[in-house]
Amino acid sequence: MARLADYFVLVGYDPGKRGSGDGQGQILQRFPEKDWEDNPFPQGIELFCQPSGWQLFPEMNPPSFFVAVLTDINSERHYCACFTFWEPLDTTQAQSHPRNGEEEEEEEEPSSPVQPTQLFAPKSLVLVSRLDHAEVFRNSLGLIYTIYVDGMSVALESIVGNLLTCTIPITGGAQRTICLGAGDRQVIQTPINDSLPVSSCSVALLFRQLGITNVLYLFCAALTEHKILFLSSSYQRLTDACRALLALMFPLKYSFTYVPILPAQLLEVLSTPTPFIIGVHSIFQSETQELLDVVIADLDGGTVNVPECVHISLLPEPLLQQTREALSMVLDPELEVADLAFPPSTISVSSLKMQDKEIRAVFLRLFAQLLQGYRWCLHIIRIHPEPVIRFHKAAFLGQRGLTEDDFLTKVLEGMAFAGFVTERGAPYRSIDLFDELVAYEVKRMKAEEGNKQKILRHIKELAEKLYKNENPYPAVTMHTVKKPKEGHHLRVQQKPFPRLDEGLVQWIIDQATAKLQTAPPAVKAEVKCMVPSGPPIAAIMERNGNAMANSARRLEVVRNCISYVFENKMLEAKKLFPAVLRAMKGRAARQCLTQELNLHVQQNRAVLDHQQFDFVIRMMNCCLQDCTAMDEHGIAAALLPLVTAFCRKLSPGITQFAYSCVQEHVVWTNIQFWEAMFYCDVQNHIRALYLDSTEENHVEEEDNQEAKSALEIASEQLRLWPTMSKEKQQELIQKEESTVFSQAIHYANRMSYLLLPLDTSKNRLLRSSGLGDVESVSNSFVTNSIAGSVAESYDTESGFEDAESSDVANYVVRFINRFVDKVCTESGVTNEHLKGLHVMIPDIVQMHIETLDAVHRESKRLPPIQKPKLLRPNLLVGEECVMEGLRVYLMPDGREEAAGGNIGGPPLLPAEGAIFLTTYRIIFKGTPTDPLVGEQVVIRSFPIASLTKEKKISIQAQVDQFIQEGLQLRSCTFQLLKIAFDEEVASESAEIFRKHLHKLRYPQHVRGTFAFTVGQVPKQAMQPKPKEKNPSLRTLSKNLVKNAKKTIGRQYVTRKKYTPPTWDQRSSQHFPEDNEDEISVSEEMDRSTLTPSTTIRPSDKMTINHLVERACCRDYQRLGLGTLSSSLTRSKNEPFRISTVNRMYAICRSYPGLLIVPQSIQDNTIQRISRCYRQSRFPVVCWRNARTKAVLLRSGGLHGKGVVGLFKSQNAPTPGPSQTDSTSLEQEKYLQAVINSMPHYADAGGRNTLSGFTSAHMSSTGKWGSIRASGRMSSYALNVDIGSRLAGKDLLGAQHNGTPSEATFLRPHRASLYIIGDKSQLKGVKPDPLQHWEVVPIEVFDVRQVKASFKKLMKACVPGCPYIDPSVTYLRSLEESEWLSQIHKILQISVLVVELLDTGSSVLVSLEDGWDITTQVVSLVQLLSDPYYRTLEGFRLLVEKEWLSFGHRFSHRGAQTLAGQSSGFAPIFLQFLDCVHQIHLQFPMEFEFSQYYLKFLSYHYISNRFRTFLLDSDYERIELGLLYEEKGEKKSQQVCKSIWDYIERLNKKAPVFFNYMYAPEDGEVLRPYSNISNLKVWDYYTEETLSEGPSYDWELTQGQVEQVEEDRQDTSAPQTKRRIIWPCYDNRSRTEPDAISKLLEELQNLEMELGQVPERWKETWDKVKASQRSEARQEGSRTPSSLLMSSGLSHHRRSLGVYLQESGVGSSLNLSLDSDTSSTSTPSSGKQGGRRSTSTLYSHFQMSESENRSYEGSLYKKGAFMKPWKPRWFVLDKTKHQLRYYDSRMDTECKGVIDLAEVESITPGTPTMGAPKTVDEKAFFDLKTTKRVYNFCAQDVQVAQQWIDRIQSCLSDA
Questions:
Q1: With helix as H, strand as E and coil as C, how does 898-912 read?
Q2: Where are the alpha helices (DSSP H) in 1120-1199?
Q3: Were 1259 and a residue from 114, 145, 677, 1269 both cysteine, which residue would form a disulfide, CB within 3.0 to 4.6 Å?
Q4: Distance (Å, rounded) from C-alpha 551 to C-alpha 1593?
């Protein structure tokens, strides 16, 4: 029984405290005046009576009633029912209060001088109770008020007394009628079960006010502990809303601040940091605005406002959706039938009270589903004296599969759930609706999912039960409570509320209490029982089938592998191992592993040998690494006993346990994991404790005893507890306590095992990376503990402290102490025991450290387990190892081939081996980890100099290992090394590796590069002498000039004849050991003063001879551009001369010493002109067309001022001093001199420019298909058009293959000189009609764009990781790199220049600084125009001249030294080589060198193996003494310093650089297609050979293969010719050489066998070709082409869209057979070096043509695309199986051939445009070949038919 009300209080307005604006209330009377012992009087009631503050009102308001809730210090709730009415305030009333002695008037007058006639003050009657019976309170207080107001003759004292003494039962569904003694009666029903909240209608009202979604938000916010604030202008509604929210949360109880009505004075409570549910009156809404983290629900407006910074986790799907649907079925039943055509006439809508219960039923179901199976995750740690229960959160989430779910995780961590476990965890107690629901109905709910009718039925059933609980007696007798008469509150003359007699009330109370004490206590018998557990989670949650579909097979694999390990079948185990590691990703496999291993432990097989130990450890590690720190699937828990069981004997008495090798996982440092494990074990032991005791008595019941869970045993014990004797109770308590204590000791040991690292001497705790120490090489898995990653006190940054082992020990001791304190206090271990534990722990740790030391010592002696031995790479002569191999794994990158990928094949990567750093390369050499390809060797390497990016990464090297630190190294030779360091590599070693790498990649000076240091001891190379690095310019020029004066003077006198030196003398360059200035060759007499170490160059060596030796000079002589005749005097008839003006590199640093300039220009003029150009690179001639005598010039771009002056007309005054004026005039003179040198200049009659064309003329004549035929042709339209065409605008016109074909129309009108300049430079330049030159402004890309494009190209061709995003593919990223469009641009400009030169105009290329794009264009133009440069010798000359002598900045662009590091790598030269490769593909017969030659150069120009491509200009090379060396110097045989010498030597040995298809046409000018569709991605970018590394270091790859071949022949008995070639592994050209190489090789082998001296391959080849030619000549063929050549070639050229030449009759005319080419080519340009087709072959055997004419006649033939019909004479030749045609019958020159082998069909045709008019339609027929369709037309139908028949018969004969 409980009191209905504890206190009755009368609260009134306190007139004495009015000064401060708001008034205050005061307690006028309270009953009883003494506090009850069990329930003290709550403070602050006066605040809650008027929550918005005590104020006086000018009129009387009707009485109001609400219930406020106060929570006391013991978190008991007190319900304060406040009944407030208004009384007039006057002076007499103020004095009539004996309590307030002060005089009222004195107070009032100063504060408010003007008093209204009458004010009303509030007064409240308050009942304070611990029960929430709002209606009863309303009635009771209403009764008191009625008695007072209506003046009834009942003593108020007795009513109050009765009210305070009334007692009612708390629960049990009793019904009690009370009467307060004023003719009233009320019936109070108590709920059947008080654990269920009472809500009457509040929940339904809340949903009405806010709606479903809003309430769900509030519900989730409350459960996940957010702050919630309700606003309303009604206090009662605030209380109801708060009550409703709490009712929804059942069975969880809200345990934070709960204030349904917050008084104004306490508003600052809202800024408390803890969660709360608070209600506030709407008038304070403005004050709630600045609350940033509070969810505000406005009940009146129906809104819920969630601030931005608050994230509310909602219910997990599908529960959220199901709850929403259920709620809408309850609240809005019309929704279901809203769309029906015949809706039911009535829809039963439940009453509000019933709806309220239905909503609660929905939430009750929701909780049952959320928490289903929770009892299976309870751990009972103590049963007596009272149960202690813990919840295993991780296991619950793991089994429910909701580990990722935010909402449930937060709820389980919350206070409410902790209370739920304490309250409902107990195994023996009374149970309520929720317990039944979660135990028995979960299955039903699962089954009914999705069936709305059934769900609704279930909801209604539950609602009935809830309703019944609140209203157990439906037939309630009516209350009779008197109410006041109408208008009662408007009576002004009402007497104030009387003062009650305290004594009387107290007397009534005392009497009642005395009576109660004599009465027998009404004990309500609580029905306790064992709480049902319900089905286990696994039974409810059915697994998603598909993920585990193949798991049975996987588990089989895991089991097999383990049994192989224990049966010692290691090879079998090794093969299965990778599959097992992959399977470990699945949970089932991990559980299977733990079970299997456990079986082996039980069978006493825990002592393993080393190999078995290693396997078991790897499996355990793999198993653990996917576990989170929570260990939600209990994997770590299952492994914990195993890691302390498996062990291996290291030596007598020393055993290493598995735990020392699996410490690396986060789970061991998670204290929650240890707690859960501890509680689990304690529960098992306590269960065993009671099972044992029962088993002694009932042995026969053993079977069903086993099944009893710990909770069941506990509930049984709790039932018996009261019946036991005191001694028995004490004994049980003691037993349990000691069980817990012994477990605590056990766990202290276990934790020290897993937290102390094997090597405790070093503080390796702090290394959270997965890399072990160098010393722990002993065993691949002897790893360090991660414990230190959470160590607080150390500097985790550096990770290496000189820490004593005690640090580790201290940390572990602290960790274990923290754990022990927590679990022991929770599980009630006595204080003495706890102290004892604290003393023991340091000893345990110390003991363990000592045993570990011995283990560590022994384990170091173990040989490393099964790591493949490191393979040493082959090194070049002179290449030194800088760093010995670090053991690493080479990981697969984004290229799929090596990893198996989509083309299949074995996964060569990941491979394990070592990474070596030499002075020249970074090399990885190792073997694949996949055991199926284990015997292959994988090599990947690249030159250090080509490293472009190095970044640290962390990767997982093997499935069973941890994340390791690694490096990703990217090279511009299109290679990527993605390596993960093995755990034996300390991270210091990795750092040292990186530092060395950086030092080698960016040496201080170019002298530090490999090409210089080769052959030296690497140490010296690293530390240059502290002298000045490069001599200052001044000293250099002094010395140069001094010597030059002497030498040049002498030179003129002696007139020495020029003899080009032999190749050998140029080849090897010696370099002195000193950083002295090499060129400062001193006078004879100084010689003695020099130190002997300096290499002394006799001064006469520094003569022009040296300059003459350079490539440029030889080339000038070849081109006849200027000779060094016996005297250096000028021969006047030559238009150009070789000028020595730059011999001292004084005018232009980056030009060669000898330059070609017009004869008429003086040297001093040159000096002035050079100032107008960037970098002083003034225009010089670099090539002359032998036929048209047009010259090609190159220069840097113009400086601004020069440009303007140059192109203004002469008479316009130039601004500025006359200096600029004269310069620009001289510039013009210079250009004019160039023009005058051209022989046709005179004939051209002076100034004809490109003007004068009409657009029509342009589009019809010639083949400039790509020039835009724009309408607005002005006098200089063509320039604009050439420019716009090069700017890559859309190309209109007839032909779309990007070939600017012949410029024949340029002949009559063309400028003599075109200047190709940068558009941006030439802005505002007006062409001058008087000049003979024209400016072609074009847009080009700058170096920045090339760099960016190259980076993207590298990422596309060698991606760092596989493409994950499907939209990003190889082709897409290739396109985005824009590399091919840059190639297209360069080719396009080059072809344009070729055209101009070929038609006799000279061209000056003047772009950027004249050393990047200019060089590319100029070199390509020469290559296209001059066949000499397409030979090996010529190409070398071209590169030496245009790239090296003319100062392409190789060192700067290649970022070869530290200085260039910031600018990065710009592959200008590579781009040029790519262009050459594109041309080579289109004209394979025009180049003497092969594609391999181009790749070789691409690789070595950045490899720094040779000195050829070092430094930025000849000047710098001379400065370093690289350019010339002593004639008498010995050549060092071993090291080639020049790439050309190397190529030459190699070319003598083997035909690698030679192109067998080489069959050049004389004087052929090549015009490649430049459209992107014609360009191919160079395979240099994408291919690799993993078997030997890059094939460009020839010595390295050669030796290897032969040796392998020999071994192979010995071992394999059956000699098989079959070989499997893997892409990306084998070298295709080596394993499958082309026929010619094979034959040459066989010849050489035969010669060797016969003991002859083998002939050089070149000689053999030349002989074969010569004999071939003579045979052909004897057979009467006029073509010098060899049979050998043509047989190996299909119609290669044609397929690439180039012209096919037919030379069966030796014609010089070509017919273009491709439908997409636009015109027949004319003899001058059309020698498109041909493919010989079948007729060539036949012409060797058939002498006279006439015999082969099977049938002939005249037919009209439609020309190629857009061409007219023409009559031709056709000959059908059965023998040669072809149809030939001639211009006329008499013609001997065959115009073209249609090969019948290619004919697909012959069909009747239709006349097309331009066909002969008179002919019958039926005389047309079409011949379809594989290439195109030919349209024919005969004279009449018969002839046509005859032709068709003949051709058909020919086809059928074949």
A1: HHCCCCCCCCCCCEE
A2: 1163-1170
A3: 1269
A4: 50
Confirm if 1537 and 876 have CB atoms less than 8 A apart: no
- The number of beta carbons lying within 10 Å of the beta carbon of residue 1402 is 28
Q: Assess contact for 331 and 207: CB atoms under 8 A.
A: yes
**Averaged pLDDT of the chain:** 75
Backbone angles phi, psi at 91, to 5 degrees: -65, -40
Mean predicted confidence (pLDDT) in 53-74: 85
> Side chain identity at 1679, as an amino acid letter?
T
Helices (H) and strands (E) counted in the chain, each on its own, are 61, 42
* Candidate ranges 896-910, 1470-1484, 1791-1805; pick with highest mean pLDDT: 1470-1484
Tokens 């592998």 -> residue: 561
* Separation of alpha carbons 770 and 664, rounded Å: 7
In this structure, are strands 1191-1194 and 1402-1406 parallel, antiparallel, or unpaired? parallel
Q: Is the pLDDT of residue 1066 over 50?
A: no
Distance (Å, rounded) from C-alpha 618 to C-alpha 614?
Answer: 6
pTM of the model: 0.55
**Residue 1293 pLDDT grade (very low, low, confident, very high; cuts 50, 70, 90):** very low
Share of residues in the chain with pLDDT > 90 (%): 14
Separation CA 7–CA 678 (nearest Å): 50
Those residues whose C-beta lies under 8 Å from the C-beta of residue 1146, and which sit 6 or more positions away, are 1037
Q: Does the pLDDT of residue 28 top 60, yes or no?
A: yes
User: What is the rounded CA–CA span in Å between residue 1094 and residue 1086?
Assistant: 13
Tokens of 1545: 């030597």
Radius of gyration of the chain (CA): 51
The whole-angstrom separation of Cα 1435 and Cα 1425 is: 13
Residue 930: closest CA among 555, 577, 1362: 577
> C-alpha 22: how far from its chain's center?
64
On whether the CB atoms of residues 238 and 232 are closer than 8 A, the answer is: yes
Q: How confident is the model at residue 958 (pLDDT cuts 50, 70, 90)?
A: low
802: Cβ contacts below 8 Å, ≥ 6 apart: none
- Looking at residue 1161, its amino acid is I
Cα end-to-end distance, the chain, whole Å = 118
Residue with tokens 């097979």, as numbered in its chain: 553
Give the CA distances from residue 1016 to residues 1012, 1013, 1072, 1502, in Å, rounded to whole numbers and listed in that order. Answer: 8, 5, 12, 21
Average pLDDT for residues 654-658, to the nearest whole number? Answer: 85
- Cis ω before 251 (30° cut-off from 0): yes
1663 burial class (0-12, 13-18, 19+ CB within 10 angstroms)?
exposed
- In our burial notation (b when 16+ CB lie closer than 10 A, e otherwise), range 139-157 reads bbbbbbbbbbbeeeebbbb
Summarised one tens digit per residue, pLDDT across range 1078-1137 is: 333 333 333 333 333 333 343 334 445 566 666 677 788 888 877 654 344 445 567 888
The answer for 51, left when phi > 0, alpha when psi is -120 to 50, beta otherwise, is alpha
> Phi and psi (nearest 5°) for 970?
-115, 135
Nearest to 215 by CA among 65, 359, 44, 107: 359
Give the confidence band of 1245 by pLDDT, cuts at 50, 70, 90: very low
